[in-house]
Fold this protein.
Amino acid sequence: MGDLKEYLGEVVAAQGGLDAALAAAPWFVPLRVMREMERQTPDPLVATLAPWRAESLLRREEVDAAALTKRSSEEIIDTFLQERDLRIVAREDAPDVEVRLQPELDDEDEIVSEELARIYLAQGLRERAAAIYRKLSLLNPEKSVYFAELIRNMENNN
């Protein structure tokens, strides 16, 4: 941002003042924003030419990077959360739900293997083979794309 202000300062100095620079380039919105800030009056062409410039970098306060590096990450996060009020708070009436990382299979579930799925497929029992591939996909998430492809190929061959 400092570079932009320096550049605009050079442009204004080269043209002989802010009004002269705007007369030479009336379409240059950053100069109009500069004039708005200087005169404390809104420029109607800024809203017309570039409505997104309402939040111009020229209007923002400069941030001292050295001061930020002295703060701990926890302080920075707390400041961010306090400014934006983005805290996630659990509701009191929310039920405690256990997050499961692995699928649970009952002891009654049948044994699943790729070989058994191939046997079912060879016998023409496509639904049973697809069910086994789905269970294998749950048991082996790293191969889920592979099993999904096998199921899709079975369905396409129907």
The mean pLDDT is 79. The two ends are 63 Å apart (CA to CA). Residues 2-15 form the longest helix (14 residues). Residues 126 and 158 are 9 Å apart (CA to CA).
